[in-house]
Design the sequence.
């Protein structure tokens, strides 16, 4: 069993990279890929744990793209963490995130929910501030009862206090990831749009834009969703990956390797992913 999607406190998770490596062994995983948003900041400490654990530790990241007027997440799996150009590109993305964060603070103040960036920073162990940390700050100020309520009322994608970032196009993300030696994969496709969304054409378009895989196994997918996306990947000739999207205490229902309970990502998927990494088509 493997898990190719999880977050540390270098983005919006709560576990240290070292802790994740140990947890990977505890969960009896064969391989574990760290995929923090917009950063490889935790990857050094994570990979340095390799001699101490049995689970194979892998490097990755998760990028946000704009597609059909919504936000689409793309995983960069097996990227080279030493790639200087990719590091610089991620730094540029973090700059755009900081700009969005400043504008979101201003927007929330306009709406009558004044918090400061320092309030938000106080809830993070990293300079990379995400909406998870905004939710904690809004709850601490008493503007919402619990952090998840902040996503319902204020900062969820369709809420008045949400400010979008300047996001990449899927083709740009795919190229950046390929050029860093990784495989670009559509993350949790079922989360992108409602249940009635027809994926057939959209996924084919993403494939044309350079996306080579899709996350067919996911911590919160229902059995029918998993079956649908695995079959779709097979029809299109895309690789299938899988992961829990574990965030530690920030997503309490999810366990590493297990997701919300029934997740079981087969080892063979990693072998196919590595074949794709070596021989996959460059777009
Ligand atoms: P950001 O990258 O700052 O836009 O924040 C996005 C992160 O917020 C996601 O990666 C999730 O961890 C979290 N998130 C987004 N929407 C929700 C939601 N509706 N409920 C809980 N967490 C969410
Ligand atoms: Mn997240
Ligand atoms: Mn995501
Ligand atoms: Mn994720």
Sequence:
């Amino acid at each position: 069993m493997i898990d190719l999607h999880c977050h540390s406190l270098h983005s919006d998770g709560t576990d240290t990279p070292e802790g994740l490596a140990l947890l990977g062994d505890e969960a009896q995983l064969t391989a574990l890929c760290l995929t923090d948003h917009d950063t490889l900041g935790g990857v050094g400490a994570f990979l340095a744990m390799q001699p101490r654990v049995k689970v194979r530790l892998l490097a990755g990241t998760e990028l946000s793209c704009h597609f059909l007027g919504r936000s689409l997440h793309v995983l960069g799996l097996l990227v080279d963490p030493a790639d200087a150009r990719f590091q610089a590109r991620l730094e540029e993305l973090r700059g755009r995130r900081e700009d969005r964060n400043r504008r979101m603070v201003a927007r929330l103040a306009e709406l009558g929910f004044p918090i400061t960036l320092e309030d938000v920073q106080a809830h993070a162990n990293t300079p990379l501030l995400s909406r998870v940390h905004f939710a904690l700050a809004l709850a601490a100020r008493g503007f919402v009862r619990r952090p998840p309520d902040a996503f319902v009322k204020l900062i969820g994608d369709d809420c008045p206090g949400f400010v979008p970032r300047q996001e990449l196009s899927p083709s740009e993300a795919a190229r950046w990831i390929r050029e860093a030696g990784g495989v670009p994969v559509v993350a949790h496709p079922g989360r992108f749009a409602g249940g009635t969304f027809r994926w057939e054409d959209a996924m084919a378009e993403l494939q044309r834009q350079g996306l080579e895989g899709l996350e067919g196994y996911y911590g919160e997918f229902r059995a029918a969703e998993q079956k649908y996306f695995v079959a779709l990947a097979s029809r299109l000739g895309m690789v299938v990956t899988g992961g829990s999207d574990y965030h530690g205490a920030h997503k309490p229902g999810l366990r590493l390797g297990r997701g919300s309970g029934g997740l079981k990502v087969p080892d063979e998927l990693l072998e196919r992913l590595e074949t794709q990494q070596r021989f996959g088509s460059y777009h």
Summary: The pocket of manganese (II) ion (ligand 3) is lined by residues 62, 73, 187-188 (CB under 6 Å).
